[in-house]
Amino acid sequence: MSLRLANASVTYPGATEPAVHQVDLTFEEGTHTAILGPNGAGKSTILRALGGLLPCDPGEAVLDGREARSWPRREFARRVAFVSSAEESAFPVRVRDYVALGRNPYVDGWRGPSPADREAVGVALHRADLDGLASRYLGSLSAGELQRARIARALAQDPDIMLLDEPTAHLDLGHEFAAFALLAELVAQLSLTVISVTHNLNMASRFCGRIVLVADGTILADGPPGDVLTPDRLARAFDWPVDTMIRPGLGIVAVPVAPGDAP
Ligand code: ADP
Ligand code: MG
Q1: Does residue 224 carry a pLDDT above 80?
Q2: Residue with the nearest Cα to atom 25 of ligand 1?
Q3: Where does residue 28 rank: exposed (0-12), middle (13-18), buried (19+ CB within 10 A)?
Q4: Cα dihedral 127, 53, 63, 59 sign
Q5: Is the whole model's pTM more than 0.85, yes or no?
Q6: 132 lines ligand 1 (CB under 6 A)
Q7: Are strands 161-165 and 193-197 parallel, antiparallel or unpaired?
Q8: Which residue puts its alpha carbon closest to atom 15 of ligand 1?
Q9: If you take atom 21 of ligand 1, which residue's CA is the nearest one?
Q10: How far is the centre of ligand 2, averaged over its atoms, from the C-alpha of 83 (Å)?
Q11: CB of 15 shorter than 6 A to ligand 1
Q12: Per-residue pLDDT tens over the stretch 137-159
């Protein structure tokens, strides 16, 4: 499965300027790419365009040689799962039933869920370490558990590609690490292609082989963490002075500084 954003621009209705301008990105199977950048840079827009949720003009998102938005939605959803930044369920739902929503692209409307669908839900719950929480109500979960449930729902789709918008927002540092480690496991075990928007530069440098740094709707830098997460590039992207420390095995630590701070 190959996913590409081909020279794509996105302009929201009523906007005079494109939110994303001529972005070209191709993603390799079995890799985790982080999309980083300041608020309003266009990260979510890029992710939604990749997920076929927004029209591009010019350009297009292309899945396996076919324009994302021309795929039948069910077919597309069997290949690409999208975990949005936040969405609350309006009605009480148990974790198992919530994860089962990921089977919608497979379930036969007349016959309902098959044994294979139930099996896939069980596997997804297990992979996300939710076996003990399957009967709990979604609203009763902690932030870390809730994010695992949202990843499990995406996993139940049995996708080749997973798009996640700030999957670790609101998680403390331990739960954030665990979420990145879970994604790394899925990449390694299932050869899943993962693309995550995140603000955690350190976790991105440690867990993602590739970083796409976005600012003002364009790509400022794209490559391995060591090439992208440099003080000058980060300062330019975030419009704030930044110092970095490289900790072999632990990744890159970026620290915002004031102009008068000692280096
Ligand atoms: P990021 O995810 O990097 O914070 P977004 O992709 O959400 O940034 O937004 C990029 C730009 O597009 C911002 O200027 C934002 O105000 C604008 N934008 C985002 N969503 C919409 C929308 N639904 N309608 C109009 N403008 C939007
Ligand atoms: Mg966003």
Answers
A1: yes
A2: 12
A3: exposed
A4: negative
A5: yes
A6: no
A7: parallel
A8: 40
A9: 12
A10: 12
A11: yes
A12: 999 999 999 999 999 999 999 99
Atom from ligand 1 closest to the CA of residue 45? 6
pLDDT digits (tens, 9 = 90+) for 228-259: 999 999 999 999 999 999 999 999 999 999 97
Report the residue among 12, 20, 53 best suited for mutation to probe ligand 1: largest number of ligand atoms under 8 A from its CB.
12
Q: What local confidence, expressed as pLDDT, does residue 222 receive?
A: 98
Q: Which ligand is nearest to the CA of 84?
A: 2
Which residue ranges form the domains of the chain, and what is each CATH number?
Answer: 1-79+159-263 (3.40.50.300), 89-158 (no CATH)
How far, CA to CA in Å, does 142 sit from each of 49, 83, 151, 180, 196? 30, 17, 14, 17, 21
Contact between 61 and 4 (Cβ < 8 Å)? yes
**Which atom of ligand 1 is nearest the CA belonging to 217?**
10
Q: Which ligand is in closest contact with the Cα of 169?
A: 2
Q: Is 58 in the pocket of ligand 1 (CB under 6 A)?
A: no
Of 108-117, 126-135, 184-193, 205-214, the least confident: 108-117
Distance 260 CA to ligand 2 centre (A): 31
Buried b (16+ CB within 10 A) or exposed e, 167-192: bbeebeeebbbbbbebbeebbeebeb
Extract the tokens encoding 114: 């098959």
Strand partners, 33: 195, 210
| Nearest alpha-carbon partner for 195 in 225, 217, 165 | 165
| Mean pLDDT (whole number) for 166-171 | 92
